[in-house]
Amino acid sequence: MSDNLLEVSDLSVHYPGRANWFFQTAEPKKAVDGISFVVPKGKTVGLVGESGSGKTTTGRAIVKLAPLTAGKILYHGQDIGVLSNSDFLPWRKKIQMIFQDPYNSLNPRADILSILSEPLEIHFPQMTRADREARCAELLRSVQLPAEHLRRHPHEFSGGQRQRIGIARALAVEPRFIVCDEPVSALDVSVQAQILNLLAELRQRLGLAYLFIAHDLSVVRHISDRTAVMYLGKIVEVAPSAELNSSPVHPYSIALLSAVPIPDPAIEKKRKRIILKGDVPSPSNPPSGCAFQTRCWLKEKLGNPERCNTESPQLVQVSTGHQVACHFPDKA
Predict the structure, then answer these.
(1) 0.85 exceeded by the pTM?
(2) How many Cβ atoms are within 10 Å of 41's Cβ, its own excluded?
(3) Measured between alpha carbons, how far is 247 from 241 in angstroms, rounded to an integer?
(4) Which of these, 158, 221, 230, 273, could form a disulfide with 53 (CB 3.0-4.6 Å)?
(5) Which residues are bridge partners to 97 per DSSP?
């Protein structure tokens, strides 16, 4: 039996273009364009990239909150991507999501007991009210909050505490796999560390697997076993997290890591930061050839080779477990 809990194969999510004033329909928006990766049992895979790269759409497609255009999503070998929303309901006990914004992801009119009880009422209708309340109290304690807070409302908590409640809600139905959609990006740095440590402790204690979505490489390095870098809907590099941070190959990964601050003034002063020119192209009108070629500093360094403009690079292995989509991986 495979050691992979989740396998994503050639996943694409395209949104139809909107008509303009002249009734001309724009090209489809290719939010995610044919990506593949695996999440082993009990491991964390990080997904990083700039805003608009398709990270969140990938996570939402896995939990069926975004429409799947093409590809397969296999959970324990079964294709869950083809299931309707009603057929997918039993799988929601196994696959949950922690949302980015702890302020908007909790119902402000409901108390914490109601928020945590709702998934239990849906998936475990046989539970009594007393059993549900006992389970909710246990969930709060598991995320290091007092059980006495069950009668409070979200506005009575800080951002970090709200995110703990969001984590507790995801754990309520005892899932095996959780999509973490930038769960610490809206929090202070000190609180970020607490939430990351909590997620790591829960993963080890409960045997969970995470897809951890973020734009901060230092955060992903702290919690992930493997990291995949996305750009304009495609995965451009994937490797063990330690190797990616020490020896990045793709010019986009190198540029991202050059922006991560180092807490050593002497090293930071000598380090050269790579500033990418321009903005991320529109997913409705991606460039020909390599998706990164309009901003690639390596392409300029090599004299603008034509291959970058015309041929889309495929992921190739540069070392054990390390793949990169670049025509010149040895030149960076």
Answers:
(1) yes
(2) 16
(3) 10
(4) 230
(5) 179
